[in-house]
Description:
This protein has helices at 21-25, 27-38, 71-77, 110-128, 151-162, 174-182, 202-214, 227-230, 254-257, 260-278, 291-300; strands at residues 52-59, 81-87, 92-98, 131-138, 141-148, 190-195, 218-225, 240-242, 249-251, 281-286. It is an alpha/beta fold.
Amino acid sequence: MDYITPSIWAKHKVAMNKVNKEEIIGLNWWARERVRGFMTGLHKSPDFGFSLDFAQHRAYVPGDAPKFIDWTVLARQDKYLTKQFEAESNLRAYFLLDSSASMYGSVGSKWSYAVRQIALSAALLSKQRDALGLMDIREGEEVLFEAKNTDDALEQLLFHLANRCELSIGNGSMAGAAERLLSQIPPRSEVIVLTDVYHENLEGFTKQLGALVDAGHFVKLVLMISLKEELDVQFYGGSFVADSETGEKTMLSLKDTEGLPEFIQGQIQVVKEQSALYGIKYTVLYVEDNPLHSFRKIIAS
Length: 301
């Protein structure tokens, strides 16, 4: 069974469970309500990415957090000094959103889950007075929204996504999009990639993300996984499926699907190894989890 075909798991007989246009437009209110409590107790410029820059040293005093001690100075000069930081005022976060066929599942759409993460991020960044941008990728089409922090810009972004909720046919080149993003975004931006494991050349894709890191950007790779659809071997067993790339239809037996969880875990392992190699932060989200719980994982990664 060839699991490399990114869209082979689009289940043919089940209607798509996706957010509709009205729900996406309403995500702004939904996200702001949930982020309101999330911000309680946070520093005015929390570590969404690298929004804190080193400013100077000062003498260590009891009660200072050990993580801010400059251990290099201690080793060389036998002095306890604490690092002080200043907030960077213009954090820019760009989402690279995979809108290809494999992101639209039959039970829990990875794409709609990713859109909710974008909405939550927009609400948090708005409170921080930082900017949010988006590059949306599907076959034959690539849409870039420059990073801005205005209500009108967010409304336009959500309106665009509301018109993307129909099932995508085919798959865009995420590696190519990352390469083009490199030449189009301002220096020291944060790039959050929302995709799944169905890439024929994960090594090439992560290498291109590594080029963003080398250029001074902070990159987070977020993999969207469905526990029910992709890690439960019985879900597709006995189902009639269609490959949305080729249109080829086939009936899958339970034996056919037994290798899917192993394939998924193998792809995650590739991402783990490649991310360590190129200095990329990565995390795995399960679409069955509470969206706010997953949002915390993105912030913490």
